[in-house]
Amino acid sequence: MARTPSNMLPLGTSAPNFSLPDTISNATIGLNDVKGEKGTVIMFICNHCPFVIHVNSEIVAIANAYTKKGIGFVAISSNDVVNYPQDSPENMKIHAKKEGYPFPYLYDESQEIAKAYDAACTPDFYVFDNHLKLVYRGQLDDSRPENGKPLNGKDLRHALDCLIENKENTALQKPSLGCNIKWKTN
């Protein structure tokens, strides 16, 4: 598995708009549909990446806890499904139900949304404030498959707590690390 870090989109960047199919509901969902009253978390994930599999339970726990606090959540998969059929929309729907995703799981077939966010890896996390300005990007926490560090979502939770409490997040924002997005070659 390739260990690819986040590109770290500049803080203050406006959230690029999107309108993508939700593999769970079969509806088309846009940025304003998932925008939370206090902020929005946009995650680039996929089904097969060991780094995402490692954090699935924690992203579900965070989404369940923070949705009640006014944070919107959405996950997007942008992987090439020709070469990685395990990440197909049909398999995304099965995976989302199995993991209990409480958020839409969108399919970015053109990969244009991943490019607009400068996403590089799965998982890649972005937190936008209530004006859709980027306030956090990077890792969930220090835990990685087989590194023995606790999976607790501390970095993402801290960023969300700062946002909700209207405090500046002065903590170091570390890049996420995971599998590279599977870009189409044609």
Question: What would the keywords be for this entry?
Answer:
alpha+beta; Glutaredoxin; 10 strands; 5-stranded mixed β-sheet; 3-stranded antiparallel β-sheet; 5 helices; 22% strand; 186 residues; globular
Question: Could you explain how this protein is built, in words?
Answer:
This protein is α+β, with helices and mostly antiparallel strands. The strands form three sheets. Strands 6-5-4-8-9 form a five-stranded mixed β-sheet. It has a three-stranded antiparallel β-sheet with strand order 1-10-7. A two-stranded antiparallel sheet has the order 2-3. It is globular and about 45 Å long. The two termini are 22 Å apart. The model has no long low-confidence stretch (mean pLDDT 95).
Described by the principal axes of the CA atoms, the overall outline is globular
Helical/strand content category = alpha+beta
Total helix count?
A: 5
CATH class: Alpha Beta
Domain count: the total is 1
Main sheet attributes: strand count, strand direction, barrel closure: 5 strands, mixed
Proper CATH architecture: 3-Layer(aba) Sandwich
Rg over CA atoms = 15 Å
Question: How are the SSEs ordered, and which strands pair?
Answer:
Elements (H helix, E strand, L loop, with lengths): L3 E2 L13 E3 L6 E3 H4 L4 E6 L5 H18 L3 E7 L11 H11 L5 E3 L4 H5 L4 E2 L1 E6 L4 E5 L15 H11 L12 E4 L6
Parallel strand pairs: 4-5, 5-6
Antiparallel strand pairs: 1-10, 2-3, 4-8, 7-10, 8-9
Outline of this structure?
Helices cover 26% and strands 22% of the residues.
